[in-house]
Amino acid sequence: MAIGSFVALGDSFTEGLDDPRAGQEGYLGWADRFAGMLAAQRPGLRYANLAVRGKLLGQVAEEQIPRAIAMAPDLVSLAAGGNDLLRPRGDPDTLAEQFDEAVRTLLMAGCRVLVFTGFDPRFPVLRLIRGKVAAYNMHLRAIADRHQCLLVDLWSMRVLRDPHAWSADRLHLTPDAHQRVALRTCEVLGLPVAADWQEPWPLAEGIASSQARAWLAARRTDLRWARLHAAPWVARRVRGVSSGDGITPKRPELLPL
């Protein structure tokens, strides 16, 4: 598949949280990493990233897709809907209809579409939406199959079920996990890579001496997460604000890397 240009669409996952750029402001993330790997195989690759943290699927479709189509890229990645599912009224069937329409819009514009499923949420509290994510993913796989889209199935990536893959907020990937998603994306596109995304995580240091200590340590971590991450998220929902308010795309123009 000849790819001379790539545009990434979506929310914080594609913006790259929590994968900070070394010595610079902003984030790297799987999309930037994948674009770098792709450029190594396709010199002169042009790349844009329109993803913004906190965006809902409808906002991605309304704000990002028209801009992407205007750039006429060869490949567009679409990963969205996770923020909708975190809300009580987030319905996977309704979201799937919106997602299908977004994919068809991109395809009609002549873009090849790369689709991402949602992760398998395993942490306490987040497990409550596991059923909704699973149902949404079934729709996404069907959409990808129906429209012959490329598909990166994040749910099936067992390495992402390990705590090593997640930052302290339990919603965003660590730098190493972003790298693994980039490698998996290369695999889906048939690009050669020098590393294995399935490589086991290193063993944790200082294994707890008893199940009781391990349980207590986990509960302390849960309480810290609730105080530092869950409570602020709920407060934003109550105020009707988003983490993406005032944030602009980090790479708004389709330019060579």
Task: Record keyword descriptors for this entry.
single chain, 257 residues, alpha/beta, Rossmann fold, six-stranded mixed sheet, 6 strands, globular
Shape, principal axes of CA atoms: globular
Structural class label: alpha/beta
| Sheet of most strands | 6 strands, mixed
What's the β-strand tally? Answer: 6
Into how many domains do the coordinates divide?
1
What would you give as the CATH superfamily?
SGNH hydrolase
pLDDT < 50 stretches: none
**Any guess at the CATH architecture?**
3-Layer(aba) Sandwich
Q: Examine the coordinates and then state which fold CATH places here, giving the name of the CATH topology.
A: Rossmann fold
Classify the helix fraction into a percent range.
40-55%
What are the secondary-structure elements, in order, as H or E? EHHEHEHHEHEHHE
| Terminal-residue CA separation | 19 Å
User: Which sequence of strands runs across the widest sheet?
Assistant: 5-4-3-1-2-6
What percent strand?
A: 5-15%
